[in-house]
Predict the structure.
Amino acid sequence: MARVLIGMGTATAYPSAMLLVRRRAEQAGMDEPPAGVLGGLVLAGTVTVAAGFPLGGVLVDAWGWRTAFLVNIPLAVVAVVLAFRWIPRDPAIAEPVTVRAVATRIDLAGIAGFAVAMAALLVFLMSMPRPDWVALGLAVLAGAALVWWEMRRSRPFFDVRLLAANPALTLTYMRYALTTLCVYTVFYGITQWVQAGRGASAREAGLLLLPMTGLAVVLVPLISRRQLVRMPLIAAAVSCLVASVGVLFLTTSTPVAGIVMVTLVFGITLSTTSIGNQTALYNQVTANQIGTAAGLLRSFGYLGSIASAPVISVVFHTSADDRGLHVIGWVMVAVSAAGLLALLTDRSILRRDGGMRSPSPAQ
């Protein structure tokens, strides 16, 4: 239940922030994306990752796993106070706010269908290496029913028409999911291998990732202020592929410095994929689509992080040894290559302007 509640909170924060940024930019008459503000969103998320994994390792190692949840309580209190203090009120709604109006506006059936499809898919993924085919079948059926239903809704929860009508946006989601899969495989797979193969504690494994996330924190403001899309995405794809190849050469006898060097390259991926895909999304949708589009970006990121779990589970189901790590490395190489292919097929990104023009309201 605690994980579900935390998921609900983290899921609503990012699309709300993107919607606030877009509204404020339009009020200020800005034609270009507010690079500094968008970079701040990425920086906030990167700092959270940078502090979260090492801090989580220290807390779990010192006082047990419950402290990883309890530490969120004071942070949540501060967030609530800041929200009431600084976030402006939502615009007035013309139609009356009644239970019936809310029920009509909210796609409850779409939410339920999406939840069933994702829950069944998660059960299937987490059942590895003994796949639950019934769960997979349920996920496929629920997903097909969801697409059928959402195509007929005027206000769909999962905007399938948006994905079909905007191939560039769909490619953005694919790139983000693929790079997120690789990054979270590092977060969870490398740390597990270090603990099992090298006898490191949870604290030491968490601290091992600190240079990676620290580099990402440094790179975010340097890149975001330049309002680039193409070069960050190229850097993300190439660095992810190079670092994945580097995983193939790691062994339990590799010096700590060698492991850190490989994870540092993933630090480049972590920062550039967030900046590039976020700015690309900002330019690929209209103002009234930004909330939904940002929510879908976060959803695809979650799918990538979730997909890393069964990869690690299948490969490390007996022991987290060098052979298993190299199998994971090959999986990451294949995923990275797919991400690079998704970039090379996106003409809106590779053309000279890098996809920086915002769509008109008519698009």
